[in-house]
Design goal:
Blueprint: E1 5-8, H1 22-33, E2 37-41, H2 46-52, E3 61-64, E4 69-72, E5 77-80, H3 87-95, E6 101-102, E7 107-110, H4 114-124, E8 128-133, E9 136-141, H5 146-156, E10 164-168, H6 174-178, E11 182-185, H7 191-196, E12 199-200, H8 205-219, E13 233-238, E14 250-254, E15 260-264, H9 271-284, E16 289-293, E17 304-307, H10 316-322, E18 329-333, H11 342-360, E19 365-368, H12 371-374, E20 393-397, H13 405-408, E21 413-416, H14 421-432, E22 448-453, E23 460-464, H15 468-480, E24 489-491, E25 500-502, H16 505-514, H17 517-525, H18 528-535, H19 540-550, H20 557-572
Parallel strand pairs: 1-2, 1-10, 2-3, 10-11, 11-12, 15-20, 15-21, 16-18, 16-19, 17-18, 19-20
Antiparallel strand pairs: 3-4, 4-5, 6-7, 7-9, 8-9, 13-14, 13-23, 21-22, 22-23, 24-25
Helix pairs in contact: 1-8, 3-4, 16-20, 17-20, 18-19, 19-20
Length: 576
């Protein structure tokens, strides 16, 4: 399952005029019976909610007072998530004769009293915020909202917001919907929320909740995957065969929890760079991954806990404990184990990882390096070990044809690096039982790869999404490194009298300052600068900036020099 938690607002969403239809209750009971968790997130006060909704025990956790108070129906325990309202503020509202109600933390009134409330906050210099919910006016400590309340409830359940769908209808639901992987606005929601939500229901109020709950049970909301780009992962960028050179590159993206990925290629072909770029995105998006690292290649990957060293075997119990936290990714270093024992260790660890998946839908990604060794052709999973659809898996290998075919069948996106990429793709396709894809191009250099979605007849040549650390290294290399003679820029002039080589951008600027205007304008008029920036430096933004200068016939040599110099320095000065 991708969505293991359903969180809903009460008034205007689950309830209509304060009442919840029996059909909505029944479908939520089915959602809970499927192994999922239910959360209710509302601006109401707890005693009031209990009075109007006796079935509150249906929910695993209830967030009331617009994110300020957490309630567990099973234990009847409450947890205040912020400070209570300042007595001086309540006294000032009374002095101003503003009608209000107080909860454990929230102060509630209604329009048009918001101006008096704001004046009281300003006069007392308090760190309070005003939140609107249609006609209601709520006052809370700054930073407290339904999103913070939702995160507190998910933390109690050891669940991730990436596995949560949230439903709402009003102004105070903006942060709430944004805090979930899939934010749903019911049909009667305010226009601003409808504009921002990932999904809209066809039905209003509780019928809208019922609609989403039934779709959740039917296909885990897979029909909405293409709408959820907020948390998708970029594999690389490409240009279509008929694309204009001025047209920006398109991104090739995957659904972060639905795909199985193969990263294949020989050593020094850019395979590790590709993997690092994906892992960095997973970490930035707060996806939890568990990386099995036989050779210790990822021991120091930032943001992940590493278990095992070159001398110490990784402790399965410690790994298990670490996976309990949704925000913690794990690297399992197998270097201390003899090579022959590593597949056996992994085979014993795998059921534990998949058990976590069953209960929490985490880790979101299982990454297996040296997959041809840990999952060789001879490896056949027990029927109870591997689920029918194993997604969120990344296999890294030099030899995909040596990986167990039952595992390869879970792969639906292959990223292959190196000059032999077409042959590697064909070997993978044959081993997995797929039709061999068509390939009209192949990677010519590091940083390029063939990407093939197994439901497509052909592969696409892309510039892979490198990690920030790798991009910084490349930027420094282009700025002050030593490009090869074939990659260098040559100032030759109209009569080819010169042969001044710029082996990097800093040298380019130095030579550009010294060459005569005729030579500078000659290359400018032939668009040589933008072509070098695009083809060699591989900086499309810099190339576009240079092209704008080249196509501006009104600039003098000095003016065009200054503009291109500024474009380079603004992008690369920090790299040196």
């Amino acid at each position: 399952m991708r969505y293991i938690a359903l969180a809903t607002d009460y008034d205007g969403t689950l309830a209509h005029h304060g009442t919840v239809e029996e059909r909505s209750v029944q479908v939520l009971e089915r959602v809970k019976a499927s192994g999922r968790k239910l959360l209710l997130v509302t601006g109401r006060h707890l005693p009031d909610l209990k009075n109007v909704f006796p079935r509150i025990g249906l929910f695993d956790y209830v967030v009331v007072e617009n994110g300020a108070l957490l309630y567990c129906p099973a234990t009847r325990e409450t947890t205040l998530l912020c400070e209570p309202p300042p007595p001086a503020f309540l006294a000032e509202l009374q002095r101003r004769k503003v009608p209000f109600e107080t909860g454990r933390a929230i102060v509630s009134t209604w329009t048009p009293h918001q101006n008096e409330v704001l004046e009281a906050i300003r006069e007392l210099a308090l760190d309070l915020q005003v939140v609107f919910n249609k006609g209601a006016v709520m006052v809370l400590p700054s930073g407290v909202n339904k999103a913070t309340g939702l995160h507190a409830a998910l933390e109690e359940l050891d669940l991730s917001f990436h596995n949560t769908v949230a439903l709402g209808d009003a102004e105070n639901d903006h942060a709430f919907l944004s805090a979930a992987e899939c934010g749903v606005a019911v049909a009667n929601a305010v226009p601003a929320l409808l504009d921002r939500a990932d999904v809209h229901t066809e039905n209003r109020n509780g019928a809208g909740v019922t609609e989403i709950a039934e779709q959740l049970l039917r296909d885990d909301l897979a029909q909405y995957d293409d709408r959820l780009r907020r948390h998708s992962i970029t594999l690389g960028t490409y240009r279509g065969p008929a694309a204009d050179e001025d047209e920006p590159e398109k991104e090739l993206r995957i659904h972060a929890q639905r795909n199985g990925i193969l990263i294949a290629g020989p050593s020094a072909s850019g395979k590790s760079t590709t993997v690092a770029g994906i892992l960095e995105q997973l970490a930035e998006q707060k996806y939890q991954f568990c990386l099995i690292d036989p050779e210790g290649d990822y021991e120091y990957f930032a943001g992940a806990l590493s278990f095992g060293t070159a001398k110490e075997k990784p402790d399965p119990e410690a790994i298990n404990k670490a996976l309990a936290s949704p925000d913690r990714s794990v690297i399992v270093n197998l270097m201390a184990l003899p090579v022959a024992e590593r597949p056996e260790y992994f085979a014993a660890l795998l059921p534990r990882i998949l058990e976590w998946r069953t209960r929490t839908a985490r880790p979101h990604w299982l990454v297996i390096d040296e997959a041809h060794h840990l999952l060789p052709i001879s490896w056949t999973p027990a029927a109870t070990t591997i689920p029918p659809a194993l997604k969120g898996i990344m296999l890294i290998t030099v030899h995909p044809e040596h990986v167990s075919p039952p595992i390869l069948k879970f792969i639906d996106a292959a990223v292959v690096t190196g000059n032999s990429a077409p042959e590697t793709l064909a070997a993978f396709a044959k081993a997995a039982g797929f039709r061999v894809p068509q390939t009209s191009e192949k990677p010519a250099e590091t940083g390029q790869a063939l990407v093939w979605f197994t439901n497509s007849p052909s592969a696409t040549l892309v510039n892979v999404h490198a990690s920030k650390a790798e991009r910084r290294r490349h930027r420094r290399n282009y700025a002050e490194g030593e490009l090869s003679p074939d990659q260098s820029f040559y100032f030759r002039g109209p009569d080819l009298k010169l042969n001044l080589r710029a082996q990097n951008l800093m040298t380019f600027l130095q030579i550009a300052d010294g060459v005569d205007d005729e030579t500078w304008l000659y290359h400018l008029g032939h668009s040589d600068y933008s072509h070098w920036f695009e083809a060699v430096i591989k900086d499309s933004d810099l190339a576009r900036a240079a092209k704008a200068v080249e196509h501006n016939g009104k600039l003098s040599a000095a003016e065009s020099r200054a503009k291109i110099k500024n474009a380079i320095e603004s992008r690369y000065t920090a790299a040196v």
